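Journal club prep, notes for RB
We'll compare a predicted complex against what the paper describes. Inputs for the magnesium ion case:
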Amino acid sequence: MSIQRLSDIVIAQIAAGEVIERPASVVKELVENALDAGATSVQVETVQGGRRRIRVSDNGSGIPNDQIELAFAQHATSKLRTAEDLQQLITLGFRGEALSSIVAVSRTHVMTRHRDEPTGTEMSLEGGALIRQQPIGAPAGTILSVEDLFFNTPARLKFLKKENTEKRYISTLITRFAMAYPGTQFVYMQDGREAFRSTGNTQLADVMVKVYGIKTFKQFVEVHGTEIHKDNQSEVQVSGYASLPDLTRGDRTHITLFVNGRWIQDSSLTYAVTQAYHTLLPPNRYPLSVLMINLPTDHVDVNVHPTKAEVRFRYPELIFTAVQRSVRNAIMASHSSGESPNFTRQVTPDASRSEGWNSHIQLDLKLGSEESNFSNVDSDARLQEHATTPEDLNRPRHPRTLPPLRIIGQVGAMYVVAEGPAGMYLIDQNAAHQRILYETLLDNYASGTADTRRLQSDQTVTLSARDSQILERLVTTLTKFGVDIENFGPVTFRIRGLPASIENRIQEPATIVHKLVATFVNGDPDDEIATVAQDISNLAAYRTGQILSEQQMQTLIRRLERCENPHSSPDGRATLIHLSGDQLAREFARS
Ligand code: ADP
Ligand code: MG
């Protein structure tokens, strides 16, 4: 071959290799452009992990009609004029090569209207060649749709990872942007379903809750620190959140760093974060953090790499110290102030429960405390524990926590009255049954022995996009509880069976779904599994007002006697009231 100058299109295709590695690179560049254009709302849509289509819509400034062609040309940018400008960069883009690279390796469609112009432009390009261009009416902002990425560069196409891997890259990227720009609303639609949404209310904490869930977020502490260079007085600010030492991961990928609003990779600063936890973490465990590092623009060189993910600092030690110190201070402060990462559920007696009963009786209300299963069992009952009863021969899975009770009857279709060696017991049938079902569900879950009972006919439930997303995250957990549920269309779920342990006690399987969605819609609870068990047991338990057969009462009491925490329901209500022989005697003035 003789030497020839390459055509612009071929040059752009070759150059594209550097900036556009995968669908996520397109998303990154387009979102950066939207943010640089001052968008307060950015919507990203992908089809098939971005291979089929990536569409980014923003409400930013839009591109002026007379500049649209230039925008897609190589090395064309509105963000920088001279090399010196690189020192004062406040924009994410500056190299002027993203759009030209993207259009070179895809079929691109753009609609844009500059906010100061009455009409906008619509334009189609294919492999860098202009196909169509015409004026259109459109809201201010830009919609860029990139289809069939790498259709003309088969080598690239071959190296794309599995669709799910690409989806994961894109999701991670969008959550990073959402954290770096909490004042911008981000919506991510994946194959037509909403996969992520932030509110844009400027609160990083709110975005983090969306990203990590409330349970995890509660184990973060706020970081705030400033470091000043002693010679030139320049200032580095570090803010954000860092995990308490109890929350760790097996790798460093959850140490997220931003410099002046740009996500960066920096092994030295990552090390600074882990150093802040020195001696606090087990070996090979790493913290989670989201840190915003802000410093004068001329103290950081962002033009190190085409993807702009690596930067160079003028005073690297200063930044290192700033990061390490601010994180260390934050975790130490939380330790000393007693701010505890353990949000143990407090089981409190519900006083109103006993009010209907003879209120001047000194009720010996014994509530199960999580630590001591036996401490609240009457001493004579404890002796009984060691006597051989027929049940012991069957080796029940759980030790006794209540003395054996003899059923006397049911009162008011609400309480079971029973007699034990140490007096009389009134058992709230609803609270007790909830406790039993709850522990059984959790037991079966933990041992992986949850059986499913098939429904007579399959049930389908259709939810809103938001609710189906909430439910989708719970499907695995539900399955482990014995709920046979599966995704059946974008927002529809099919339920084919319920846990055998709840014995057909839920007539309308959809109620589980609705209850769970209502519980989880306000964010993830501290203990997802316990919460699911609580919701199911709540629905399946005997209702107040239900007449129980002799057999039902027997089973209820026998099972309650072996609950780990027989004295309270999962939501903290008393399951039983015990009137000791002494108390009864006192009441009847016998002593
Ligand atoms: P860079 O971002 O490095 O300047 P790009 O190739 O990404 O280069 O974009 C070229 C130019 O097109 C930008 O400088 C900007 O003026 C314009 N542009 C691109 N996307 C948008 C957008 N979403 N809104 C407004 N202007 C845009
Ligand atoms: Mg750009």
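Talking point for the session: Residues 316-336 form the longest helix (21 residues).
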